[in-house]
TrEMBL record:
It comes from Pelodiscus sinensis. The keyword Transferase does not apply. It is a multi-pass membrane protein. Keywords: Membrane, Transmembrane, Transmembrane helix. This is Golgi apparatus membrane protein TVP23 homolog. InterPro entries: TVP23-like (IPR008564).
Amino acid sequence: SAQKDSNDDTEDVSLFDADEEVPTRSRKSKIRHPVASFFHLFFRVTAIVVYLLCELISSSFIACMVSIILLLSCDFWAVKNVTGRLMVGLRWWNQVDDDGKSHWVFEARKASAQRKKVSSEAESRIFWLGLITCPIIWVIFAFSALFSFKVKWLAVVTMGVVLQGANLYGYIRCKVGSRTNLTSMATSYLGRQFLRQAVAKDDQAAS
């Protein structure tokens, strides 16, 4: 069943069309999708390397810019449509209803009792490490370009931040559910931290 978020017309549904059978022997450290794992990192890492070495690779700014944008576009498509589904059982996209209303859909594949591990731990680490680290690097590039007055590169680094940040946001939504769940998780975490501090202060006062 689908649960709709009334605030932004999003819904969380199960990834029923990707519920392929996972062999029992495919467990923790085994990489079951080596090609997907490779391309999950290849495009985004290559884009960063080209950006860093562009002045050594080519004297043409246009050639470097087009190469980086192509790599970022390929990465966005691959991560959004392929690697997320295969490596961690998550997927997100925009859908238009019959009445023309657009809304975002976030999918998370449910693990059955017989196969609690939908994806291997190694693939999950590779996926989330690449997904989180690279947008942070592009944000650093954006500040660097801004403060060093490399105005011509701002469009490129902005593209990197937007495309990779969109995938990061989409998969976080898939992982934790709707925005209300995100808020409740943050509230719960802050509440636990406050309670721990209060208990620690009481213990110190008692001693």
